[in-house]
Give the backbone structure.
Amino acid sequence: MSTPKSLWRCDGVPRLASESVDDPSLKFALMIRDLNLALSRHGASDLQDLGLSQAQIPVLSVIGDLPGSTGLELAEATHTTPQAVSQVLCRLVDAGMVRREALGGRAMGHHLTESGAAATREARIRFARLADALLVDLSDDEQAVLLSSLGRVLDATVRLDAHETPVQDGAEDFRRNV
């Protein structure tokens, strides 16, 4: 019987979920989860005084990059459901950060207002500062390798979403259960 690992590190800091496993695949998944939670925890406080939530940032960013996007296009671009995007858009319109434009029929295009564009710019600056703080211990080359590797992992998620991932070691079983 193995001795359970402590929930605390020797420096008194709580142990991350990813620190308690040895299996590389599970460790990867838990590290991504730990990073997401850390970004949420640190990023949320930076967004509150801008009147934004983390769910609103991707939607604002896409509208800024693709003005006139419909709700369905925003859902696809942010990998979110149309219902979730609709709720986010309602809040952004109510907050005066997004304006709607009739495109014909029931379709509506979405555009950033001046306050929405300003909030998006400021949120990007704050996220860049947070990323700099998280990446401070990595050299420029290590950061480039990390970003490239994460990009390839994200590309794999897109293929998995489209069911284009090659079948390897149970991937087919995984896709059937997704």
User: Anything to note?
Assistant: The beta strands are 98-104, 107-112. The CA atoms of residues 55 and 95 lie 14 Å apart. Helices lie at 24-48, 56-65, 71-78, 82-94, 114-135, 140-161, 171-177. Confidence is low (pLDDT under 50) at residues 174-178.
